[in-house]
Amino acid sequence: MGAVTLDVTEWKAMYPQYDGLTTQQVEFLFQLAELYLENNGFSVVTDEGKRKFLLYLLTAHLAFLNFKDANGQGGNPGMVGHLASASEGSVSVSSGLSGVPFNKAFFFQSQFGMMFWNAVKVYMMGFYRG
Questions:
Q1: Is 54 exposed, middle or buried (0-12, 13-18, 19+ CB in 10 A)?
Q2: Which tens digits make up the pLDDT trace of 51-86?
Q3: What is the pLDDT of residues 87-97, one digit of tens each?
Q4: What is the separation, in whole angstroms, between the first and last Cα of the chain?
Q5: pTM for the whole thing?
Q6: In 3-state terms, the chain is what percent helix, strand and coil (to 5)?
Q7: Interatomic CA distance for residues 114 and 12, integer angstroms
Q8: How many Å apart are CA 81 and CA 96, to the nearest integer?
Q9: Band of the pLDDT at 127, cuts 50, 70, 90?
Q10: Phi and psi for 47 in degrees, rounded to 5?
Q11: Are 62 and 33 contacting, i.e. CB atoms less than 8 angstroms apart?
């Protein structure tokens, strides 16, 4: 059991909205994803197929945070959380993540981060090897 290898073509096929990213950009994002999920034989996610899927989700989450997709979404998420209030005169908007723990907030900025967080909850419930 070893490290999962990034296949940029496969990743772009799974996340076609980021097809405009260069190979170097995707590789950089994957390296960042490895900071959040250990990618070696000592990872809590021992199944390499699952680990690859989780790392790909994390890479998509980081792509959302750093780059605009083909539809112009992401790249500068700015507001985090749900829309808490809005005004019209002199424009005012606020957002919030009430009830969301701090360690979860980073992941809840994109659909990919939310999917990752929910998928790894099983690994955060004490000692798990699987």
A1: buried
A2: 999 999 999 999 998 887 777 766 665 666 566 677
A3: 778 877 776 66
A4: 12
A5: 0.79
A6: 50, 10, 40
A7: 19
A8: 5
A9: low
A10: -75, 115
A11: yes
Instruction: Give the amino acid at 63.
Output: A
The secondary structure element, H or E, covering residue 114 is helix 111-120
Tallying the residues shown for the chain, one arrives at 130
Residue whose pair of structure tokens reads 């992401």 in the numeric block: 74
At residue 9 the predicted structure's pLDDT band, cuts being 50, 70 and 90, is very high
Window from 37-41, 59-63, 74-78, 124-128 with minimum mean pLDDT: 74-78
CA–CA distance, 3 with 43 (Å, rounded to integer): 9
The one-letter code for the residue type at 113 is G
Handedness of CA 10, 51, 58, 26 (dihedral sign): negative
